[in-house]
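Support reply, case 0932

Customer input (verbatim):
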Amino acid sequence: MKVNYQLKLEEIINKEKGNIPKLLLHTCCAPCSSYVLEYLSNYFEITILYYNPNISPEEEYYKRLNEQKRLINELKLTNPVYLLECNYDNNKFEELSQGLEEEPERGARCLKCYRLRLEETARIAKLNDFDYFGTSLSVSPYKSSDVLNKIGEELSDIYGISYLYSDFKKKEGYKRSIELSKIYNLYRQDYCGCKYSKKKDITD
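Our regenerated output:
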């Protein structure tokens, strides 16, 4: 039976009513995070973890990072949003991609990439006493919320920290992210991030 991850998110929000839990949120870019921040900042104190070793070239990585910083500064949000910037290390992604170069989009290479980024989010969240960890990736129509949430669930058990379930495509989240991108004139890339997705023009 298909799980309604939006409903699971709403159950967490209702459970935390009256509290402002600390959330470490992995984001990939400003456009994908826009609606997610607008929505979740009503209920959480959010720190964005910008950890995306898959993105290349390096100039693209910093272009997206700078747009993320600008969006945080310009968005009108209920609770403040902070940003934790990781060092750029494309070698990490290249190592996990070995032997998977010809995999299709959403194949084994992508699954490993999701896990790499979510695992670092879980690890840092646990080390720094966050209440939850999560990701904005599920807003994308090119990303399976089922796959992402199952990875998050596994990592929650491994690291002993609560995972914030999500399917941000629900409630017209993707549509709202496009609207916000236009309002704030955000740079919208035409590929997911890695050099393999660039060949196929698969966007976030």
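We compared this against your earlier run and they match. Two observations from our side: The two ends are 27 Å apart (CA to CA). The CA atoms of residues 25 and 134 lie 5 Å apart. Please reopen the case if you see a mismatch on your end.
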